[in-house]
């Protein structure tokens, strides 16, 4: 498929006059009216009404410079030189922009773009226009391991060519850009089709994608692990996590492995960790937070570090090397944007873990490594590779999810001061605040499956090899599942339920730990920070919001509190 043919198939409501032999494509979605003008090779991109813009960016802007350095999450296309384009964008439309990379000076080419280009350039034939589909926004936003399921994996039925890689880079589930609220679109789609099959969005060779928007359909898929395999997850992450990724296994291998690792997260151990570890971590973080004064960004100063510290110690790693461990964890979490770096970090984590695993064989302690090393069912033990895979999976599964969920819960509570007050005054509501957050804004929106054979979901026939995407956040807001204002955050609703921890044999094994971590964090934050509330000026200045389509969490949580 030529670059031009591909471009024509991209889901763009707006195409520039001339795509030509452009070197790069940037695609981004807008959620507010915006206006684009180009004069004398100078581009102005205005968000909001043209007469009263909420944000204007020009090529000379400081913000634009941040874009070039890949540091912003703004809704911006970088456009210079030979590009020709004109037009207005409408609300909800996406736009594809083409520009000549050579016009950018080498110094101004952001590193993630160079990386993308290197990866996408076909090795045997460097002459065709190399294209990168990326957005300054997309990379940091949805770059976590376990993020966009297609960014560096091979689903069944797909080849390994240049176009395939390109196709994997942009999916309708994960369009680059600052996706603030994917839910209205999903609700709209659910109204017309609870199961949507897409066969031709990226051309015939791109395979079939199936989106599940309804709660019943999501449950049906997650329960039917005979027809819908999790192996797609194993394929996607094996280069980082090895050959034994629990979440990517099918039965019966999955059940055997899960039985072996599950005791490492059993409730008895959790009770022990509650006092000796989790509370200690929260207390330490709060001391640091308060040392700064009466204001903080709870993402930078609390939520980001918290689950990594807990999981590191739960695993059995010493505190003194914690920062290095967190750096590795972050490298692995960035796997979708930089698979090489993720693989390198995984290698280092293995080397780091090896002596601990060896030591725990003779010196058993109350930590997860000891549990894994000594786990045995019917004479069966875990081998080293199985232990590595499980520990590496915990970085995205146990850290990323909880950090995002905690941030989103704080964001929803701070945005609803009355409900925050209710929780402050009645701590039995803490759990409800968390469960309602998981319902209304899951930190992980989808967990893919691949159809092993032709089968059915509801009345819809799912073709063999189709990649099936159960959209957990859409399911949680299905009016057929939650009838009372499903779009609204309301921790008092009853019953309060969701599918955010999954369903069926792969249901989250760490849900008790996640709940415990959140309960302790929220209780202690409310105790230590009286009158905790949003710092409104900072919220506006930083444009703090929850963002993401496959992964969601707040960009910032600027807060203030009263003196003790
Ligand atoms: C709010 C926090 C969390 C959320 C929303 C979450 C969500 C999920 C979901 C949806 C699945 C099922 C995936 C699938 O069906 O393909 C899952 C599985 C899993 N989760 Fe969690 N998780 C969270 C926290 C944790 C924690 C704290 C840990 C461990 C420390 C953890 C470890 C795992 C593991 C190992 C699996 C694989 C289970 C299996 O395949 O049998 N998760 N999680």
TrEMBL record:
Region (Disordered): 123-153
Segments of skewed composition (Low complexity): 126-140
Family annotation (SUPFAM superfamilies): Cytochrome P450, SCP-like
Boundaries of every SCP2 domain copy: 23-100
Family (UniProt): Belongs to the cytochrome P450 family.
Gene3D superfamilies linked to this entry: Cytochrome P450, SCP2 sterol-binding domain
Pfam families according to UniProt: p450, SCP2
Swiss-Prot/TrEMBL keywords: Heme, Iron, Metal-binding, Monooxygenase, Oxidoreductase
Record's protein name: Cytochrome P450
Positions in coiled-coil regions: none
């Amino acid at each position: 498929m030529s670059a031009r043919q591909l471009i024509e198939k991209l889901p763009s409501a707006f195409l520039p006059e001339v795509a030509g032999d452009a070197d790069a494509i940037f695609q981004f979605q807008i959620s507010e009216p915006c206006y684009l003008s180009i004069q004398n090779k100078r581009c102005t991109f205005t968000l909001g009404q043209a007469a009263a813009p909420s944000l204007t960016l020009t090529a000379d802007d400081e913000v634009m410079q941040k874009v070039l350095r890949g540091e912003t999450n703004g809704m911006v296309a970088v456009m210079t030189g030979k590009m020709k384009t004109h037009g207005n964008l409408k609300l909800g439309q996406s736009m594809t922009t083409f520009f000549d990379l050579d016009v950018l000076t080498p110094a101004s080419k952001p590193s993630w773009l160079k990386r993308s280009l290197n990866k996408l350039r076909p090795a045997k034939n460097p002459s065709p226009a190399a294209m990168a589909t990326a957005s300054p926004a997309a990379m940091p936003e949805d770059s976590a391991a376990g993020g966009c399921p297609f960014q560096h994996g091979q689903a069944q039925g797909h080849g390994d060519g240049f176009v395939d890689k390109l196709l994997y880079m942009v999916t309708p589930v994960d369009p680059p850009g600052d996706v603030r609220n994917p839910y209205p679109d999903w609700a709209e789609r659910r109204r017309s089709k609870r199961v949507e099959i897409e066969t031709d969005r990226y051309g015939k060779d791109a395979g079939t994608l199936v989106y599940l928007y309804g709660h019943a359909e999501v449950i049906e898929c997650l329960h039917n692990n005979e027809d819908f395999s999790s192996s797609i997850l194993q394929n996607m992450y094996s280069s980082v996590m090895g050959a034994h990724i629990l979440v990517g296994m099918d039965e019966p291998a999955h059940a055997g492995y899960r039985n072996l690792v599950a005791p490492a997260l059993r409730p008895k151990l959790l009770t022990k960790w509650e006092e000796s570890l989790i509370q200690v971590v929260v207390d330490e973080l709060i001391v640091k937070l308060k040392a700064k004064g009466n204001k903080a960004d709870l993402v930078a100063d609390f939520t980001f570090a918290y689950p990594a510290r807990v999981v590191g110690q739960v695993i059995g790693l010493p505190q003194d090397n914690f920062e290095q461990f967190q750096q590795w964890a972050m490298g692995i979490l960035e796997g979708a944007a930089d698979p090489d770096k993720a693989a390198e970090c995984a290698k280092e984590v293995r080397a780091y873990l090896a002596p601990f695993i060896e030591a725990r064989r003779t010196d058993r302690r109350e930590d997860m490594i000891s549990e894994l090393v000594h786990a045995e069912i019917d004479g069966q033990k875990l081998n080293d590779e199985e232990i590595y895979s499980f520990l590496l999976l915990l970085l995205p599964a146990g850290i990323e999810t909880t950090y995002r969920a905690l941030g989103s819960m704080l964001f929803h509570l701070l945005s609803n001061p009355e409900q925050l007050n209710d929780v402050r005054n009645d701590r039995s509501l803490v759990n409800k605040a968390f469960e309602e957050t998981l319902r209304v804004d899951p930190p992980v929106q989808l967990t893919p499956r691949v159809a092993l054979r032709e089968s059915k979901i509801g009345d819809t026939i799912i073709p063999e090899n189709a990649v099936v995407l159960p959209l957990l956040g859409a399911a949680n807001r299905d009016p057929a599942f939650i009838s009372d204002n499903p779009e609204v955050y309301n921790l008092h609703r009853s019953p309060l339920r969701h599918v955010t921890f999954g369903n069926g044999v792969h249901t989250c094994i760490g849900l008790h730990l996640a709940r415990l971590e959140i309960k302790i964090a929220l209780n202690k934050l409310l105790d230590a920070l009286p009158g905790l509330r949003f710092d409104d000026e900072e919220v506006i200045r930083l444009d703090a919001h929850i963002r993401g389509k496959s992964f969601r969490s707040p960009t910032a949580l600027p807060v203030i509190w009263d003196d003790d």
